Amino acid sequence: MDPIKPAKVVKEALEKAVEKVADLVTPPAPGKPAGVSPPVDPPNRPQGPLPRKPDQASPSTRTATGAETGAAADTRGQQAEYLTTAQGARLYDTDHSLKAGERGPTLLQDHHLREKITHFDHERIPERVVHARGAAAHGVFVGYGTAAQVCKAGFLAEGVTTPVFTRFSTVVGSRGSADTVRDTRGFATKFYTAEGTFDLVGNNIPVFFIQDGIKFPDIIHAVKPHPDREIPQAQSAHDTFWDFVSLHTEATHHLFWHLSDRGIPRSYRMMEGFGVHTFRLVDAKGATTLAKFHWKPKLGVHSLTWEEAQLINGIDPDFHRRDLADAIESGAFPQWELGIQVFPDTPEQTFEGIDLLDPTKIVPEELAPVQPIGMLTLNRNPTNFFAETEQVAFHVGHLPPGIDVTDDPLLHARLFSYLDTQITRLGGPNFAQIPINRPHAPVNDMLRDGFHQHAVQSGVAPYKPNTLDGGCPFMAGADVGAYVEVAQPVAQSVKQREAPASFADHFTQPRLFYRSLSPVEREHVVRAFTFELGKCYEQSIRERALRILANVDAELCAQVADGLGLPAPEATKPVGEVTPSPALSQIGQVWPTAGRIVGIVVDAENQASLDGLHELRQAINAAGLTPLVIAARGGHLEDGLEAQRTFLTARSVEFDALLLAAAPPPAPDALPSRDDKAAAQTAVDPRVVLMIEECYRHAKAIGAWGDGPTALLEARVAPDDLGIVVGDSPAGVFQQVQELLGTHRVWDRFPATVV
């Protein structure tokens, strides 16, 4: 008998067994710190840097002047097996300073100590004054070609794929603040186009607090922490902010968006983006059109409840940045469709009576539909946060041929401010040569020297005109892709510091926004105004803010005044009728559920609760969602099945929906002395009961089978209530829960009182 044949048979049988187990083992939960799991004991054999994780990418390996190098993506990373100085000299020790004897003083000649400490002392750059706390990702943008009739920009042509880097951020807080505070969010995308870099630097709110950029320091100084105590951090619920906005009524429209659910998005992946300003587009024949940019998330627009946001700020201040990174790592790539609203480029620059140069105004989508022109997909996480997310420099003046600015006074101030702030933050005028900022188009700018000059320019004539360098670089014409500003007529008038009369209506559009919301969304606006004004110390500021609300909506004003214990004032301006815009509401549609997080409560001591769990996790993963099993203890449950969360570590706010496979009794660690959440005396583990109660009042879908309905009853949740699914099979329950997730929440569970 051939001795090799049995071995081959055994090998094939083992391979089939492994494949069978693999069929049952679903992908691990995202969040693995490194690409390779570490050993228990410290490594003792030299090896080079480990490869980066599959979900990560780095800036394109280009020279400081935009040329492709062909180098591997990890070329800029650390090299070799041994620790060295910054100049490459190998080190034998980095734990001890060089001293005069074992106990002697440290010697000045210790160049390694000085290099290490000096670099540490300077490794922080000044944080952004605004948008300091951010998260970002690499991706691609694919043009549809539908913009060709109004814009000649090459990256918008059909099928053109452009690398991008997108950064999301909060506005008010410092780098160390929390993610889920009530705030406006930045939505900035750097397109590395073949015609030069294009930065679309917008927000998740389509309007701004001010109409003229000269007031930007005022609004930011007002909303930042009070200068005496440096509190509150990353909050608008305080006196200086409300003092300013109650005196400066042009902020009212943005204020309503800010205090709606838009101010606390569920995820960056479920957040709209807006270019805010009106831009001028130029087609191939030189004709111009005015336009506003919109980012529409494929997952729909979805927000946190106020209580969820407060809980998350304490439980996981990194909630949004973790959500973005985990979604990309798990393959649930976020997508947004870029669209434009287009308007005739008339001398008045208005549309349907709306001044297009007023950044506190929108044009309802029912009047000017958003036309899709391309798709953004974020598919790689940064390799290094500082080198990429922190050092990326956006500028509204980074424009490709085909896109020009208008005379919006807020936009014009930004054209100066962004360039000025990059020079301060990034150490000089050469910030565009930092790898994440390098263009993917050839650069020959004749700009020389300065701090952090990476380019090694040749030639002797960095000036124009010249003959010593053969006349290079030459001027380009429009026929070879030069950026040529639109020859827009400039009004003949006197110099003055005034705003157009058409900027003066500060209340009609806030009323349009408020009356366009669903009743439950209006409830949230009432609560937000009541909470924020209730945190103000000075009653005069609260009374002044109520006068503004009276000019927007009498019912809203009355509800907030009642919550503050103050009389509701009468309107001082006529409150006009508005036609609601359904596009302004986040509620009422069905959206994809990819990337949602589903918690599954099991009882490891009850085998019945584990039956069908492998198949359930496979079904959840196949649907593009992430299942997280929650048990009394973490780790191994059975072959191919692990608990990713415990009753101690899990909290309802992490999950978009909750599935109950069991009604686990109190675990050994369900002790008030060990876990405050375990203080209640219940037949089911009190942490599980708390999760159910929170998911219920946050209007989330809950499913149960087996012993799960018992846990519902312990939490005083009726099995036949709205958004509660009880069934016989895990797969059947999940299917119904997934359908409920398509509408984000079960708002009908709590009928609104406002109309």
UniProtKB/TrEMBL annotation:
Query: Which ranges are annotated Pro residues under compositional bias?
Result: 39-51
Q: What processes does the entry annotate via GO biological process terms? A: hydrogen peroxide catabolic process; response to oxidative stress
| Stored Pfam families | Catalase, Catalase-rel, Catalase_C
Q: What does the UniProt record say this protein does?
A: Decomposes hydrogen peroxide into water and oxygen; serves to protect cells from the toxic effects of hydrogen peroxide.
Tell me its family.
Belongs to the catalase family. HPII subfamily.
Instruction: Answer whether the UniProt record assigns the keyword Metal-binding to this protein.
Output: yes
What GO cellular component entries does it have?
A: cytosol
Which reaction equations make up its catalytic activity?
2 H2O2 = O2 + 2 H2O
* Name of the protein in its database record: Catalase
List the active site.
Answer: 131, 203
Region Disordered: start and end of each range? Answer: 22-78
Q: Which domain of life is it from?
A: Bacteria
Annotated residues that bind heme are located at 128, 167, 216, 414, 418, 425
What keywords does the record list, in alphabetical order? Heme, Hydrogen peroxide, Iron, Metal-binding, Oxidoreductase, Peroxidase
Stretches of Low complexity bias are at 61-77
Q: Which cofactor does it need?
A: heme
Please name the SMART domains in this protein's record.
Answer: Catalase
